[in-house]
Design brief:
By secondary structure, the protein is mainly α. The protein has one domain (17-45, 53-126). It has helices at residues 2-7, 21-41, 68-84, 91-116, 118-126. It starts with a helix and ends in a 5-residue tail after the last helix. The mean pLDDT is 91. It is found in: Endomembrane system. Its main location: membrane.
Length: 131
């Protein structure tokens, strides 16, 4: 994303750099709260091994988003985009969401559905994937 701002300076957005602190703070807080919830439940935080999940966490930030850590990641990318002050840098967060939905989250959801069955299906019906 930094290279985009160097190569295409005419597309600079010109918004205030301090705006980056808002999604940065929100993203870090969200990720921290999600990690604490998983830790308290005694289940894994590793996204590449969903089969190691021993409990389905549906409370706290997980009551609002099925993927609060990925949402936090997205907010960090948006903070970086704001810091770069570049419209083309928005491509990073867009590609992140596209990849996560098509590859990572889809695989996790399949594994969690096998692991937790109807409880996970009901959770998916109640809580949105992102927000």
């Amino acid at each position: 994303m930094w290279l985009v701002t160097e190569w295409l300076p005419a597309l600079s957005a010109g918004w205030p750099v301090w705006l980056a602190w808002l999604p940065l703070t929100a993203g870090l807080m969200l990720m921290m709260l999600a990690a604490i919830s998983l830790w308290r439940a005694g289940t894994t935080l590793l996204p590449f091994e969903p089969e190691r999940s021993c409990r389905l966490v549906t409370t706290g930030v997980f009551a609002r988003s099925r993927n609060p850590i990925y949402l936090g990641d997205l907010l960090l990318l948006l903070a970086f985009t704001l810091w770069l002050q570049s419209w083309p840098a928005l491509l990073g967060p867009v590609l992140f969401v596209r990849y996560m939905n098509r590859v990572q989250i889809r695989a996790e959801e399949q594994a969690l559905a096998l692991r937790f069955g109807q409880a996970y299906t009901d959770y998916c019906a109640r809580v949105r994937r992102w927000l």
